[in-house]
Amino acid sequence: MFPRKKPVPDNPLDGTGEEMVIPSYVSFDDAAARTSLWRMLARLPSTVVSMLATARATAPTTVVVLLAIEITSGVASGLGLYSTASVLRQLLTTGPTPQRLIAALPALALVVTFLSVQQLGGTLSAYLSQTLSARIQYRAAQQLIAVASHVDLAAYDDPNWFDGLDRAYDSSMAHIAGAFSRMVTALGSLISLLATAVTVTALDPFLLPALVLSTLPASLAALQASRLLYDSVRRTSTLRRRRWLITRMIRNEEPAAEIRAYRAQPFLLQELQRIGGLLEQEEVRLAGVQARTTLLGRVAGGIGLGLAYGLLGLFLYTGRIPLAVGGAALIAIQVGRARLTDMLLAVSRLYEQSLYVADYDTFLTDAKGRTHPGGGRPAPTTPERYRVEDVSFAYPGAERQALSHVTLEFRRGQIIALVGENGSGKSTLAKLLAGLYHPDSGRIRWDEVDLAEADPNTVRDGVAVVMQDPIHWPTTLRANVRIGRIDRPDPDDVALRHAALASGADVVADQLPHGWDTMLSRQFVNGVRLSGGQEQRVAIARGLYRDADLIIADEPTANLDARAEAQVYESLATLAAGRTTILITHRLASVHMADYVYVLHDGELVEEGTPLSLIAEGGRFAELYQLQSRNYQTGPVPAPAEDGG
Ligand SMILES: Nc1ncnc2c1ncn2[C@@H]1O[C@H](COP(=O)(O)OP(=O)(O)OP(=O)(O)O)[C@@H](O)[C@H]1O
After folding, report:
1. CB of 542 within 8 A of CB of 480?
2. Is the pTM of this model over 0.90?
3. Domain range for residue 554?
């Protein structure tokens, strides 16, 4: 069992131990994973229906052909068995051997024919089921990614979301296709089994229980072993994701320098070892319980088989069945056992995979619940007023509020600066203003439209965000800027060059070996890696190319040199005309370009006013401003002479 107590964090990378606890999101499914065998079997029909529906949506004709083939080969196997019994009957009657052989020939021909049909059907069915499985797998993975890419940003603050996503992705890639193949196998075996059961019953109805007795226990044990495996996979999913994150840090280019500079390898390796140890412990535990379960099943199966043969012997001894029928019954029992074993093993695998398919379905439902349904009032295209009304907001799962009762307002055309110390809530407020999150209480309005009721797509259309840590798309420089508004027609690159000029990205393009067509990722041939400042210029160009009414620039010049910074502020000032600009910055000198400043502290709005009035007031802003400007007045710059000369 995993420890449920928090371990003592002796490693800086130690988590709280929470990853060892089953997340609340999975508690329902976890309960399902611990359910009884009978409830487990009861869920199979819904899986079969869901798989058939997926398969029909993917390739309807193939599904029908596949089912027809399975039914044909199942019936052929039953008839083959019946013909085998006829052959035996002919061979075991009295009379000269050559005559008996000749008499058995027609039945023998039937056996060969039916077995050939069965073999041919099996081959065709395997081929069709494999191709269909591959198509189902790609379709499921595509659907999953499409749904995930549209969920609201808030999902990404919830660790359970990542667990669900990882599990569903693994399921869609590995198990959905497998579940379909298993279902075909189970269906084929079931049809064959029914045909065998009919044959056995035709020979003697009392032989049927013997058949069931000899197979059922081992198959039930297989089902139980599958359930145990699934339970274990669920319990370790967060842990495996953590291992994956750490190995990804070691594999990726970006953290490589810092890991080495800080010599952080021992910490990472120690953490990997810790996780590996826990997973190993779980594997050993699982192997033990699975082995016990399988052994019990086999012992019970052995007893069942003994009883079956005993029953057959009794029938022969008492003369209930003749020797010929006994021989045929022996073969039928063996064939029937093989069919039942095939079917129950396929069902056990199908059951196991049905749990993963359920994960996938649960994830899709969960993701839809986390996605704005679309629609709503269209946001105004050129709002005159933006209002934040008594807004409070805490990130999902966070104990502290990131914003508390914030009220402010600004008009179109203004440049608004949001300032405050680290963690004061500036970026959060900007994200709420952009409609990326919604307040827990209070409202954000563009004119009269409450963003919580607005169509998110129209809100997005009205905002250009230059993020603090912008994405670097692994594509060309040109596409990196154009992605700002991918559907904007710009045949002669006029808008592109305009945005580039204003942001300084034109200089970046001039410095690159293939100009605008340079690939911005070293993981591709001829790709390059930009410097932090160059990346920032490209991100600003992307924001400007978006040509939106509200520009949110979150620390847009943090990585820029002094000249580029001056250029960006100049451009922002020019672009601000007729638009609204929200500037988040720690460079308080640049705040002078703002019309109005809001100062946040611990999520609360503590000061507001024009830059000059705030400096004059001598409050928090003035204090931060003085602290920063002192850096420019000391050091190498000589203090002014006392006489003022
Ligand atoms: N995605 C998130 N999930 C949970 N908490 C978050 C998230 N983003 C920010 N926070 C928390 O919200 C608070 C406000 O963060 P925010 O990023 O808005 O501050 P900021 O003023 O922009 O800081 P900085 O100047 O460092 O960029 C902080 O306590 C931060 O830890």
Report:
1. yes
2. no
3. 391-462+550-635
